[in-house]
Amino acid sequence: MMLRLLLVALMALAFAADAAPRDKAQKPQALDLDKPLPEQVEQIQKQLDDGETYAEIASADRATVKESLARLAAVINENGGALNPQQKTQLLNEQNTINQILSQAAAESRLVCRREAQIGSLRTTTQCKTVAERRRDAQEAQEAMRRNPSGTYNKGS
Fold first, then answer.
1. Which of 32, 66, 126, 154 falls between 20 and 30 A from 118, CA-CA?
2. What pLDDT is recorded for position 16?
3. 150, 104, 156, 155: which is closest to 130 by C-alpha?
4. Does 49 have pLDDT greater than 90?
């Protein structure tokens, strides 16, 4: 009975460790034009380059974000804060573009950990993959089943 309680407590502890929140300091932030721009641009650049926060961002999207950030900085530096309505609209459009790309990349790059038992074993292991990696794995499995619906593998006998 005591062994069973100990085993249950250890399993609960293991699940609690898996459910613990990740580092919140690196949480992606949306670009906000009401806050100082240089610090935000620096933070976004750092997150783009760290290889974790936006791990699943496409190279074209990464380039688009960097170009938009450069255009934002150019408009702000050029006018020093006194913007006409056309420039305000341009800033808002750039902000929307950046936020849309980064929020999608952050959602795709979110790390999801699951406890999974290996086939043929009762022992579970923690498998951590991004949302995009899990989606690609599921698509590859579906494609494999589409190519071989019987599920048999003939080694060329």
1. 154
2. 42
3. 104
4. no
Instruction: Specify the pairing of strand 124-130 against strand 111-117.
Output: antiparallel
Contacts of 38 (CB under 8 A, 6+ apart): 73
Q: Can you tell me the distance from the alpha carbon of 83 to that of 75, in angstroms, rounded to the nearest whole number?
A: 8
Per-residue model confidence (pLDDT) at position 72 = 82
First to last CA, the chain: 53
Average pLDDT over residues 84-111: 85
Helix, strand counts (H, E) of the chain: 5, 2
E-strand stretches of the chain: 111-117, 124-130
CA torsion, ordered 76, 101, 66, 45, to nearest 10 deg: 90
Asked if pLDDT for residue 139 goes beyond 90, the answer is: yes
